[in-house]
Design brief:
This protein has about 270 residues and is mainly beta. It is about 10% helix and about 55% strand. The protein has 2 helices and 15 strands. The strands form 2 sheets. An 8-stranded antiparallel β-barrel has the order 7-8-9-10-11-12-13-15. The longest helix has 16 residues.
Length: about 270
């Protein structure tokens, strides 16, 4: 009798050791034998009754540890699966389509980090465009943004982005501008004299920094052409008493340090 009890305990121990483990996202562990990993669920049975098969939603499972030592991680959702985007361009060169109307020419480069995230940097040449204020502006500015592309409000099986760079997004952005421009100086004699006088023109330097939060949407056509429309608002420093220098971004006078930006970019997608 003692030997039989020892045998049963040993058999139960071996059976427990040879079982698979389904580890749920809430850390609960199911000791069982996994029979199938389907598209929507994981099927399993308990060793006590192999005829009764259960199923658990894959969305509830973190990973499966098999008795053989193999471990399978269950992907959170298909948005993160890079295989869906293997043949898509993950880089883009852009130009700010309307920036020459406001006195600058801006070029940008965007690169995907992974699904749902990318970074973008831009370089603008101040003065390469229409001089709307007749102040002869000269300078450069740079921008850096980290983009978070929005996923749907609800999830369905096997959903993914139609393009890895496409969609509505939110992006913190930092911008720096160094420039100079002509500024009219009026002295008391110029102002009160009855004769026609001209102001003294002096060259003014300006250094501005802005930290903004942008929202926008980017469309990709045939994995080649893109359109990016955005707007943003935040804090800005280095504003001038001139009515907002509209070169790359606008910074208000320091008494009210607000900064704004907006634009329409077009570009070319490449780099699979």
């Amino acid at each position: 009798m003692k030997n039989l009890l020892t045998f049963l305990l040993l058999f139960a121990s071996i059976t427990a050791i040879s079982q698979d483990k389904i580890i749920k996202k809430n850390s609960e562990i199911i000791n069982c034998k996994v029979t199938e990993i389907a598209a929507d669920e994981v099927k399993y049975y308990y060793s006590e009754n192999s005829k009764l098969v259960f199923g658990i939603d894959k969305a509830l499972v973190e990973k499966i540890e098999f008795a053989t030592g193999e471990v399978i991680e269950i992907e959170d959702n298909t948005f993160k699966n890079p295989e869906y985007y293997a043949n898509q361009g993950k880089r883009a060169l852009k130009i700010n389509f309307l920036s020459p109307l406001f006195g600058t020419t801006e070029f940008a480069y965007e690169q995907s980090i992974k699904s749902g995230k990318s970074w973008e940097t831009a370089l603008g040449i101040v003065g390469l465009g229409n001089d709307i204020a007749d102040i002869n502006p000269r300078g450069v500015y740079g921008k850096f943004a980290y983009k978070f592309i929005k996923s749907p409000d609800f999830y369905m099986n096997r959903m993914h982005y139609s393009h890895i760079l496409k969609g509505a997004y939110f992006a913190p952005e930092i911008a720096v501008r160094i420039m100079s421009y002509d500024k009219n100086r009026w002295n008391d004699y110029n102002y009160y004299s009855s004769s026609v006088q001209k102001p003294t023109i002096e060259r003014e330097d300006n250094f501005s920094v802005a930290l903004m939060l942008k929202i926008g949407k980017q469309w990709i056509f045939d994995d080649v052409f893109l359109i990016d429309i955005y707007t943003g608002i935040g804090y800005g420093f280095g504003g001038d008493d001139y009515e907002g220098l509209p070169y790359g971004f606008i910074v208000a006078p320091n008494e009210f340090p607000i900064a704004m930006t907006s634009g329409i970019k077009i570009g070319w997608v490449f780099g699979k």
